[in-house]
Write a structure and sequence with these properties.
single chain, globular
Length: 136
């Protein structure tokens, strides 16, 4: 059964996804990652991976993002969506990592969000099919 999503969360998902799409079109990826890391550093406290309350808060916020995202009129893309989710979570004081990975046969690149072993916008199978090459 779906949970209700606040108007603030709906607004934030829409604005953040649009902003990330614009940034990806106008900024270098290095600049985007630097800006996102700094935003997260300022907005989130040092994080403990095994705290059940933190994992519950992350799971609930990520679920809200994932419920709203299909209604933003921008095509889904793992990079836009993952960058957006990290920022959305950081805005709520929640620390998560952007993971970028590759698969070789056939070659593919992929991005997802996780906190410790908790995957927030990807399935375990899809994440395991890629070798992480960068965690931000």
């Amino acid at each position: 059964m779906g949970q209700r999503v606040s108007a603030g969360a709906i607004r934030d998902v829409f604005i953040i996804v649009c902003m990330m799409r614009w940034q990806l079109r106008t900024w270098s990826l290095k600049s985007i990652l630097r800006s996102l890391s700094e935003y997260r550093r300022v907005r989130t406290p040092p994080v403990a991976v095994d705290v059940p309350e933190v994992q519950q808060d992350l799971a609930e916020a990520a679920a809200a993002f994932n419920r709203v995202r299909p209604y933003v009129p921008i095509e889904t893309c793992c990079l836009i969506d993952s960058l957006s989710m990290v920022r959305f979570l950081a805005k709520r004081g929640l620390h998560a990592h952007l993971v970028m990975g590759v698969a070789c046969d056939p070659f593919s690149a992929h991005a997802w969000v996780q906190h410790g072993s908790l995957l927030l916008n990807e399935t375990l199978g899809a994440a395991e099919a890629h070798v992480p090459i960068r965690v931000i």
